[in-house]
Amino acid sequence: MNKIRFLFLLSTSSFVLRTCSYPLALTKTRLQTRDKGGKSTFEMVKQIYSHQGIRSAFYRRYSVSICALIFEPIFIVTLEITRTFLHNNRPKSLSISQWDTFTSSASAGTAALLQQTFLGRFSIQRFSNELFQINI
After folding, report:
1. What is the DSSP string of 109-125?
2. Is residue 136 part of a domain?
3. Model pLDDT for residues 60-110, shown as the tens digit of each residue
4. Domain coverage including residue 12
C-alpha cells in the first residue's frame, strides 16, 4: 500500500471521527463537571443547544482538537520505524515468538509515549477550557 495515501486516509478518517464525536465528548465533560443535579444527557444537550446554539456550544475549542491530528501520522511512523528496527536486530538468545511479543510491546509503547508527550498539552488545554466556561 502506498504510505502517503495511507497517512492521508488515516488523517481524513481521524478528522471525520473527531468532527462527529466532539459534541458527544463535550457533553460528557459537561455532565461530569456539572453541579449536583439530575440532568440526563438529552436534557443537557437540549439546554446547551437552546442557550448557545450548535456552532458556539458544541464546537467550541474544536480547533485545539483538530491540531492533535498532526500527531496521528507521527504515531504510525514511529510505530513502524521502531518495529522494523527491533525486528532486524533480534538477539539469538530469544525465540522468534518472544521477540515478536517484545517488539510489538516496545514499539507500541514508544509510539504511544511520543504521541502522548505532544498530545498531553492539547488534551489538558481543551479540558481546562471546557471546565472554566460558563456552567449550564
Report:
1. HHHHHHHHHHHHHHHHH
2. no
3. 777 777 777 777 788 888 888 999 999 898 888 888 899 999 999 999 999
4. 3-131
